[in-house]
Amino acid sequence: MGSEITVRMIDVAKAFGETRALKKCDFEARAGEVHAIVGENGSGKSTMAKIMSGVLHPDAGKVTILGEKVASPVDAKRVGLTTIFQEVLVADEASVFENLYVGRDGVFRSQSTGDRRTEAAEILARLVGKSVDLDQLAGSLPLSIKQWIVIARAILRKPQVLILDESSAALDLDSTLRLHAEIDRLRAEGATILIVTHRIAELVRIADRATILRDGITVGTLGKDEITEENLLSMMTPADRRASDATEYASRKKALEAPLILTATGLAAHRSARLFDFDLPKGSIVGVAGLDGQGQDAFIRALAGIIQPFGGEVKVRSVDTDKMVPLRSLDDAANLGVSYVSGDRKREGIFPQQSIFENLAIGVYRKKLGPLGVIRKPTLKPMFKREVDRLRIKIGSPSNRITSLSGGNQQKVLIGRAFANDPQVILLNDPARGVDLGTKRDLYRELRLFAEKGGSVIYLSSEIEEFIGFADRVDVFFGGTLFRSLTGEEIAEAPILAAMFGKARDASVDFDLERTA
Amino acid sequence: MSATAFRQVTQDRSLYVPAGLFLVLLCAVAFRGQGLFTNNGLAGAILVATPLILTALAITPIVMAGRGAVDLSVGPLMGFVNVTLITWLVGNGITHPVAIIAWAVGLGAAFQLVQALVIIYVRVAPIIVTLSGFLVLSGVNLMVMSRPGGVAPDWMLSWGAGTSVFSPVLLLLLGAFAIWGVLRGTMFYRNLRMTGADERMAYTSGVQVDVVRIIAHMVGGVFAGLAALSYTALISSGDPTQGSTYTLQAVTALVLGGASLSGGRGGALGSTLGAINMFLISYLLSTFNFGTVSGFVTQMAFGLILVGSLLVNVFVISRRTVA
Amino acid sequence: MISTVLNTEIGAAGGSSALRKHKSISIGFCLLAGLLILGALLVPGFVSPQNARSILLLAAFLGLASVGQTLCALVGALDLSIPYIIGGANILLPSLMVAGLPAPVAMIVVLVLGTLVGACNGALSFRLQGQALIMSLGLGFAAVGAVQIYTSLGSQFGGTVFAPVPGWLRNLSAFNGKFFGLPFPPVIVIWAVIAVALGWIMHNTWFGRSLYAVGGSRTAAARLGISEFKVWTVIHSVSGAMSALTGMLLLGFSGGGFVGVGDPYLFTTVAAVVIGGTSLLGGAGGYGATVLGVLVLTVLTSLLVGLGLSFPAQQAVVGLLIVPMVAIYARSPHIRNQI
Q1: Which pick of A142, A186, B191, C222 has the fewest CB atoms within 10 Å?
Q2: Testing the interface with C: which of B83, B114, B136 to mutate, by most C Cβ within 10 A?
Q3: CB atoms within 10 A of CB C184
Q4: Given a contact as 3+ CB pairs under 8 Å, which chains touch A?
Q5: Cα(C9)–Cα(A384) distance, integer angstroms
Q6: Which residues span the membrane (chain B) (predicted)?
Q7: Is the dihedral of CA A222, A224, A230, A236 positive or negative?
Q8: Contact C220 A399 (CB under 8 A)
Q9: Domain extents for chain A?
């Protein structure tokens, strides 16, 4: 038992316009194993998962799932492959029950609800840890339960091959352990489980094998004993980058002693969370970390004036008066020189139908208005050129659409938009999401330069490795509040991870299944 | 049926507004006189309201399928079936009921099939496809029949008398409800709702969204054919000019019935209630005597009720998402 | 001669960058040129000052009525109140003049009322988004109903109002109107001026840029501090005002008030916007494109009339044209690429 090959990819390639998401991908998974697919953001993991699921068709190469070709999700369903996609796909207007069984039957088969309801109630109770009303509209449920609905939907199908694409992102530690128990159960039944993730700590424990992707190429597969953090990291990231990172650290410690430019007092992400204070020294880079939904996202948005925090106050030192002035709205943020860059560039960053120039310049129009709202355009061209040069944005003609650029260059344009206003403080909300290595490096370099010239940076990231050798301080959120501030030696993977899971300072985090209480 | 309908009303808040409006209008109509609640009154009401109810039903599955697919072509499609039936069939001596009904239903379904295929395979936004269908059919209708005229087949003439509640027109209506009822019992209905609510989720979960969309359109086409039959019975002739009116009224009825034009929410019950409410509004207004301006008062009141109902709908729905 | 008039007009309105950016613009130009050549070859008298004048005159009305529709389409809205406001203005103006208001005052009153209806429309429909078009329809009904009640109270007028139209208003938009002695009605110049001004405003003012921003990505626009509500309300107000203006100018064209005069504009404005290349989903396109769409529609109509096609046949041809035109520039991505 357990040795038959269920998933096979040979020489698979896939490009989206200019971007080559997958260059050469070879992969094999067996029945009864948990196989991790690891890589940095933008390395092509999700594309690989989508090709296996039949959502995307490869440009070249061969993919067989349980000996068959899968060309659509309908095919996938037929062969017994189920995918839990990164995005939590739940229909808000439909009931929990409908969400669980969507797509299970053909177009015209009559509905049978009898056994399904008990089965569904059972599995949700097991996963969520408490019973969930099946007739409730899914839209009224919190994100974490929606995530469980998506997982339960997949498990209810009793899949032969299950793909989890970053599916544990929104789960806390207890939930992660429950998910792992579920994965174990499926493995014991002989299913193939593919975990697509960049969270290394998680798979050290659960995976039987791991295949590593780098820049669209599968660089190797590790067996159970070889899966260690060091091995994974060294295969995921090229050697040169790891070497260059460590050296930068010492010189930056002084930054934290500078006078404060931004303070926040008595903040809370939601009503029941413990209040916390936050301060940002001038010229420093502060990293913000946390598992999804621990309040760090709301925190950075509150600093940007996008949302109102529950109580508390944000103050920024005004350039003109040198006094601390409250920041309550987007307008305040603009006046005080606080710029915000979102990592969700598709949704809240770019204007897809507009030119590259327009996308960068629109951030400064308001400062360049003459009478009747007429934009003084001549001043914009030098500004545009300055930002393009500074960030080394690779563009063709400035009048080309922004969507003609790769994801990394689009992100640079958005960062250029933030820089163009000459801000005092830049807030970055996971800007490196889906961005290639080169872009990340340019980004770190520019932010360090910005900080050295007296600018201040708050950098939220979902990838711990980003902070190491880059941030002067890392503030970790847990349970809707600032849980711990880490400086100096503590800015390393293990302490950050411990704090993210709400552990004591010296505890090590391991995903021990026995501890599922 | 009434029990499930009741449960639906109590569960689905989008039906609160149309159901409430229906009760208010019913009381108001009763207060104004008993005219509607006689045999003749009801028979007339059914005759007049059925084409509207059926056109509203005809766009319901299409709107439910999502992508902002408001079917603008429904009115002219009904007109197209109406004028071709009078000119091409009756005009050439084909009057057999089976032929007439098959033509109406088949033509409606065939046209919607074409629209669905264009939407799916040419990948143009549905509203543009149906706008195109609207313009083409509006033109073609006038080419088939330049002005209202012709006569309905003999056997249909008695339908439009409006003397009995249990007329064949009511049968058309019940037939449409029966088709819908059968569909509701199958997975198609659930797949349709899921496709409209979140097409990407439905697609990745293995729902054949293209098939669902095609069927939704064809069911809508069948209803449009039935609407055309009831319309032909109502006017006992052909009329190529009413397409635009019926499109606007049907879309309005749908929205009054609590459906969301962006998909996922709505149903036959809501659309029917919406259409009946529209009928009741104009009926109610017609019981007042505004003299020479009555037509204009009707129009204005109608517009204002539409605006008010939309605003209340927003309130009810936004409260739900907060809860 | 016509094509030079057209070219300068579009060149000024659309700007040369639009030419490079949008496939649809160049296709529109080809289509227009093709239609003009076809007309010249097939229809005797197609290339004549009279025909050019009549094409431009009809295009001017459609063009003015399409201003609001274009702006609405740029943020993904549709304004269905346009025909009703046109019709309402068309009968309100003469009945106000019969009531004794001086013509300029009456015109201002009508324009203000049109703007107000538009503003209401924008303010009320903002929260509805997808449903907004039904709101505009409802308000259109209400407005035109109210106007008709006003015009018929104490008079025999209903949907039609007879009143002496001042000579200057007649000259503005009648077929044989003169523009400072030149043989074309001034409404064409009014349209041209508005088109050029609007094209400039859209590209060079904060309002214009925020309009595109909201249409392109609501959330991204909100992050830049752009008030979507303000944009939404302003464009609907502009649409109301332009519809009222069109209604009043149409009075000069026809000589008598008729409430149904706006009806053809319900979907032709949408068709002009779509054929021009402004996506109904928002964010892309512009008034320059709509000018092109208006001209294509009007020239096509004129050609079809010249070929002896009836109005219904023209409508059918226009309908058939829409899907291929949109398919060229605005196909939606396959669902595979949206996951």
Answers
A1: A142
A2: B136
A3: 20
A4: B, C
A5: 31
A6: 15-35, 41-65, 77-94, 100-120, 127-145, 165-183, 211-234, 246-264, 271-290, 296-317
A7: positive
A8: no
A9: 5-237, 243-337+423-502, 348-422
Q: Quick check: do A5-237 and A243-337+423-502 share a fold? A: yes
β-bridge mates for residue A34, sequence order: A193
Interface contact flag, B187 A107, Cβ < 8 Å: yes
Candidate from C141, C146, C322 with C-beta closest to B132? C322
Contacts of C216 in chain A (CB under 8 A): 351-354
Sign of the CA dihedral with B158 first, then B162, B167, and B172 last: positive
The candidate with the shortest Cα–Cα distance to B127, out of B236, B37, B251, B233, is B251
Helix C49-74 vs helix C287-306: angle between axes, to the nearest 10 degrees?
140
Q: Is A115 exposed, middle or buried (0-12, 13-18, 19+ CB in 10 A)?
A: exposed
Give the residue among A142, A161, A204, A201 at the shortest CA–CA distance from A9. A161
Give CA separation, A99 vs A92, A95, A152, B191, B225, in Å.
9, 6, 10, 11, 34
CATH 1.10.260 for domain C2-8+22-39+46-328, yes or no, is: no
Distance CA C234, CA A61 (A): 54
Q: How far is C45 from chain B (nearest CA, A)?
A: 26
Instruction: Give residue-wise pLDDT tens across range C54-72.
Output: 999 999 999 999 999 999 9
C160-161 vs A338-342, strand pairing mode:
unpaired
CB burial of C37-47 (b: ≥16 within 10 Å; e: otherwise) equals ebbeeebeebb
Q: Quickly list DSSP for B203-242.
A: HHTT--HHHHHHHHHHHHHHHHHHHHHHHHHHHSSB-TT-
With tokens 């036959």, the residue in question is B268
Nearest CA in chain A to B210: A107
Assigned CATH topology for domain A243-337+423-502? Rossmann fold (3.40.50)
> In this predicted model, what pLDDT tens digit does every residue of B181-239 receive, in sequence order?
999 888 888 899 899 888 999 999 999 999 999 999 999 999 999 999 999 999 989 99
In whole angstroms, what is the distance from residue C328 CA to residue C72 CA?
22
Neighbours of A320 (CB within 10 A): 8
Question: Who among C124, C333, C334 is closest to B307 (CB)?
Answer: C124
For residue A110, the chain B residues in CB contact (below 8 A) are: 185-187
Phi, psi angles (nearest 5°) of residue A457: -130, 135
Which single residue is written with the structure tokens 């508005």?
C194
C interface with A, Cβ–Cβ < 8 A, is 17, 20-21, 204-207, 209, 212-213, 215-217, 219-225, 279, 283-284, 336-337, 339
**What pLDDT sits at residue C295?**
95
Q: Could you give phi then psi for residue C174, rounded to 5 degrees?
A: -80, 160
CA distance B41 to B37: 6
Q: Are A411 and A439 spatial neighbours (Cβ–Cβ below 8 Å)?
A: yes
A5-237 topology per CATH:
Rossmann fold (3.40.50)
Tell me which of A52, A102, A346 to substitute to probe the interface with B (most B C-beta atoms closer than 10 Å): A102
Q: Could you tell me the residue ranges of all domains in chain C?
A: 2-8+22-39+46-328
Q: Could you tell me which residues of chain B have a Cβ less than 8 Å from any Cβ in chain A?
A: 11, 185-188, 190-191, 193-194, 197-198, 200-208, 211-212, 215, 264-265, 320-321, 323
Q: Position of tokens 């197209």? A: B80
* Rounded Cα–Cα distance for residues A287 and A471 (Å): 6
Tokens encoding A133: 């009303």
* Alpha carbons B142 and C94: distance in angstroms, whole number: 33
Alpha-carbon distance of A502 to A175, in angstroms, equals 14
Write down the ipTM of this complex.
Answer: 0.83
For residue range B135-169, list pLDDT tens digits in order.
999 999 999 998 898 888 888 888 877 777 788 88
